[in-house]
Queue: 3 jobs
Job 1
Amino acid sequence: MTKKSKPVAVPVANAVLGLGEPLLATESRPYLEVMAPATLSEGYAFEAEVDRCSFMVKVPKGGVKKGQKFTVPYPSDKPATQAPSLDGRWRDGLCDCCQFGCCHSVLWNAWCCPLILVGQTMTRLKLNWLGCEKSEQSSSTFRILVGITIGYWIRLVSSDIVVATTPSTDTFIASGLHNVMVGVVILVDLAFIVLLISLVYKTRRHIRDKYRIPQTRCKGCEDCCCAFWCTCCTNAQMARQTADYDTYAAKCCSTTGLSPNVSLEKCANVYSGSTQRPDILGVLEGI
């Protein structure tokens, strides 16, 4: 028998209960939007889920049809929940790149646009484009690394064009130009690789310090080894560590890799073991 999943309630900024006037969600009076799992009559009660906790929903006056969305107050009797803590541990493993599927933007950015992905992670952590803790400069981190990435793509295309159009005659001038071009290409490639590895190294070290994660392998040089030998996997793991992709959808080209409506302070859903009511207004910011 297939287990039926419970309808999931979603926080909303504005609510209309029955035929009453529109209401605005506040910290003391949040509202949830629920999709009816079936055609139900007025007063019927069914179980829904919010923040991975169940509560009872009562069908409003007039009843609802299957798939119809309606608004209900946030359950006041819902017990406090223990927020997951990531102190001292990684959210998942280094090789869990396909945890959210092979089409997830984090996976593709890690392999095809690694500087863009590490730029998104660094923006969440409020690091500047050199990996230093300077929150006043972190707003430009993503833009700078996107610019470097575009410049590197231009290098890839232009060097192929130059090679294809270089005369094949074995003259001193042609040979000299070819050698200079090859030297420039090697230097640009080396600079790009060094920048990428150094940023992954600095960001991983910052994450370990932030979440108090101990080194378990290659003690003393774990960050360096992961950044050098497993750059793409390490890059993807850092992105998953700093955002809860079970809750928030990934965005390929946004500044933080998440929707602009998501607050940076809430996106990681990381607390130091504190017990508290789930923060509804953190989700509502920007709606």
Note: Residues 172-211 form the longest helix (40 residues).
Job 2
Amino acid sequence: MAQLPPQTIHRDPQLFYWILLPITAVMILTGVLRHYATVLMATPPKKLDQKAMREQRSLLHGIAVRSNFHVLSGPSFRTRRDYLTHAYESGAFLKDPERRGQPPPNPMTDPGAMDGMMGMMKNNMAMMIPNTLIMSWINAFFSGFVIIKLPFPITIKFKSMLQAGVATKEMDPRWMSSISWYFLCYFGLQFVFNFLLGSDNAASQMAQQMAGMGPQAPNMFGPGVDPDKQFKMEAENIAVVEHYSVLDGVEGRLLEGIKSK
């Protein structure tokens, strides 16, 4: 069976210097500026009072006991279970025991919740505004350009992803358009940002948030959450645990292992 000749597109070599390199440099500089802008706009977290800290740590204590019950002996687990269950059901760890049974306060009237919402809004604006400007810049000046060819073969399924903005059916899928190069830089420069700014940088974190498709875990201490319901739910979860210990019958297992040798 005869093979098709490789597809050749005669391009201006200056496209590499006037399109590919500027887009890459702009993406790197934008990520660096976004990181420092996020650091400057970040508000320091407020310190929790003793009662609020006790409320959160008590619930985390119950979750830790329920998740690691197998490393505890039977009497030790039963002691912890009885203590936590009684404390959770009686509301001993609540920050405001007098508000027990009442609906949670409105998050719009809570100063702490408003600070968190403002922080999320600042992060979203720091991510959306630069992306919108860069996309407008690329669409205005570099739309429809084919700038690079991948050195390895790929299937036709990648054509729509690598040739965004180029409406051709016969073009080899290995050719990449300028808009596709922008998206590749957006999701592929995390290692560059980690090298320049460290592993805990805002630029790569925002890219990971955009790339993540799974649902995020709910915040158990967020605004609008009733801590009394959380405690009662955790008390029920601890009460139904069927305890066993990894140390059960350890003497027999040890002797059997010695005899087998």
Note: Residues 106 and 212 are 30 Å apart (CA to CA).
Job 3
Amino acid sequence: MSNHQTPVPLKPDDVSAHLTCAICMNVPAEPSLTPCQHLFCKECLSMHRQTAGPFCPSCRTHNANVTALQSGSLIYRVWSEINVKCGNHDRGCPWTGSIVDAITHMHSCALVDRSKKLLEEIAALKQQLESLRSGRESLRQQLDAAKQELATSRTNESNLSKTNKNLELKLEASKASAKAQLAAVYHDNDVLPKLFVGNYGYNRHSVVKLSQLISRYLENKPNNIDSNRIFNCVSQCYKDLERNYNDNPEFYYVDMRMLLATCDASTWFSNQQRSRISQWMSEQNWSG
């Protein structure tokens, strides 16, 4: 088992060497027992048998089969009394408990860490969006003010010619500035890596890239991107989540949560499509 997932005994000195895996020197969270009564981590023993054959790493006895510890056996009862702390304890996880419950906790703990990070990224994206909206509103106000000033000046006939010329130049300059700033926000391909190259092959192995594409142009979808085809990609990815394939990516659950939250915040989709996205989020208890 990888180091960040290995449970740590609360009292290492009290753990018998017979309950320690001779390969990784840790207490097995998922123990396997050889016919010659030696205990190893399930993962360690499997890797050893793949490279060295069906021989016990401790005594070299030929073992055709290995088994998990049988609940109720003496060695199982002794092993289950070992109390451990989470492999993430050095990063702040306070959990302690029986080694029997360690695997269930550590899987949950790893997902919580990943989910928290992704939710923080979504919050940061929303904050950036609010900043862009504020900047765009300021530009609109400047344009409205310029138009109002131009309209007012037209009532002054004595200075009509000179005033019109100056205000028209000012208005054009404001429009050019606004267009340049909006283009820099949404379409600066010299700074941002290109995420869309003309195809719609997004699937469960490219969910993060699809989220990045939609979040980059959250309220300003490029004309060359077909939102209906993008929605079909999102729908297929959600179906793969429901089918729970064994080869789904490791963090597929939290990556799909990030994708649907991004879709829900965007203006890419029709009302019917947005209703489907909200339904999917509700099915997974992701709403709110």
Note: DSSP finds eight helices and six strands in the chain.
